[in-house]
Amino acid sequence: MNANLFARLEASIRDTGKTAIVVPQGPTYTYGDLVALSGRLANVLVERGVKPGDRVTVQVEKSVTALALYLATLRAGAIFLPLNSAYTLAEVEYFVGDAEPALIVCDPSKHSGMVSIASKVGAVVETLDPAGNGSLADAANGVDAAFDTVQRGADDLAAILYTSGTTGRSKGAMLSHGNLTSNALSLIDVWRFTEDDVLIHALPIYHTHGLFVATNVTLFSGASMVFLSKFDADQILDLMATSTVLMGVPTFYVRLLQSTRLAEASLAMRLFISGSAPLLAETHVDWNQRTGHAILERYGMTETNMNTSNPYDGERVPGTVGLPLPGVSVQITDPDTAAVLERNQIGMIEVKGPNVFKGYWRMPEKTAAELRADGFFITGDLGKIDERGYVHILGRGKDLVITGGFNVYPKEVEEEIDAVAGVVESAVIGLPHKDFGEGVTAVVVRALGSSVDEAAILGAIGDRLAKFKLPKKVLFVNELPRNTMGKVQKNVLREQFKELYSPQQTAKVTAHG
């Protein structure tokens, strides 16, 4: 049996005339159309010299042709390597040099600069614009749609996704056909996806969430998706009347809550899923009160796709990411000794299962350091498993604050601060401190019109946390820095405020009272 993800997908198609993708104010694509387009593009890839195992680097805006290029790359037995469309050519040069692709597909505006970068690795360059037009699309016009999907094993690579690289250089996570297929089938089961579902797809497709979770789950289940170029709250509210599922990042839900239309618009919807960044418990509660729906939060990462999910049937607990998916094991270990910890003890989250990647591209030492011999992947996330088996994420390992020899888990402090009246959200970080090593510091976003200050916050949480966990200072900002998927960039905050406790800054604060 061919384990190529596309072969498995094609075998699951029961009706080639069934709608696969709808583009608002644009064409509708059936499953047959998608198979044909991917076949034409696969033939072009082969004509351009792409062989099984070669990398195809893609930095383009979201379009159906771009999505079909992902499928075509799989069909050709090559390895799909999507890049954030916001990366500059200088940033792209690192990825190209590291991955050494045979083909690069970029926006026409970047063609000349990309040719220069591609020449260093001998790659061919084609273009694709936001409308799905360009040299690649031109080459596919009139090409035969028939293509024999290349035989692949479950362990053969399907994609390489580079991690965000907030510390050190970005790492290429190697994901196999088996990784992606097993995760899609598991999520279809857990989230009850059927051919009757219609997904509102407003996520980018250079990231795990939009490319693998949203797309693979929809196509493998024979469902349909409405393909949006970007998030637009009014457009999504309009689409809810004829859709059943929305997958989004927390920012989607925060913005949708601002609409007076939400309660009525959401009546026809079956499921709201959130991921890629933590969902505030307040957002969870507000959404439930307004719509009657409980947002289903799940936990995944570039290296593993999805690991856990709150249940479809059963309690969806705010502040948790639910239970391990079928076939996935989650354990909490001591970061220093690697000993497995008991329930409700805080430590490093480790996962094992068919979803776990094969390692980091050309980084054997890094792979060995993070993938244990027994198959468990050290995620870098701190958390705990409660008595009911629900997984709680308390922050990244590198975000752990060590102050005066004590460990402070940022999430624990953030939850207390976020509960204070007048606070929208907070981020707790550790900053260099001559007496404590790191000073616990809170960066807070006030609610509009709120005058809550440092004294009010510290007064509200002072009796709820041990003294060593209390922030040495509370800073106020208009908004927290976030990456494209909505994750708070604590590394940016640490850099911005790194001199806060320096003698010079302390002197300034003292001098100004």
Structural write-up:
With 513 residues, this protein is an alpha/beta fold. The protein is 31% helix and 24% strand. Mean pLDDT is 94; it is low at 506-513.
Record the SSE blueprint:
Layout: H1 5-12, E1 19-22, E2 28-30, H2 31-47, E3 55-59, H3 64-75, E4 79-82, H4 89-99, E5 103-106, H5 111-119, E6 124-127, H6 135-140, E7 157-162, E8 172-176, H7 177-190, E9 198-201, H8 208-221, E10 224-227, H9 233-239, E11 245-248, H10 250-256, H11 262-265, E12 271-274, H12 281-291, E13 296-301, E14 305-309, E15 323-324, E16 329-333, E17 347-352, H13 364-370, E18 377-385, E19 391-396, E20 401-403, E21 406-408, H14 410-418, E22 423-433, E23 437-446, H15 454-461, E24 473-477, H16 490-496, H17 503-511
Count, helices: 17
What is the beta-strand fraction? 15-25%
The radius of gyration is: 24 Å
Structural class of the helices, strands and pairings? Answer: alpha/beta
How much helicity do the residues have? 25-40%
The coarse silhouette is globular
Overall pLDDT: 94
Q: Low-confidence spans: pLDDT under 50, at least 5 residues?
A: 506-513
Order of strands, widest sheet: 2-1-10-9-11-12-13-14-15
The biggest beta sheet reads: 9 strands, mixed
Ends distance: 74 Å
Count of distinct strands: 24
- Quaternary organization: single chain
Descriptive key words:
single chain, 513 residues, alpha/beta, four-stranded parallel beta sheet, 31% helix, globular
Summarize the entry for a quick read.
The chain is α/β, with parallel strands linked by helices and 513 residues long. Helix content is 31%, strand content 24%.
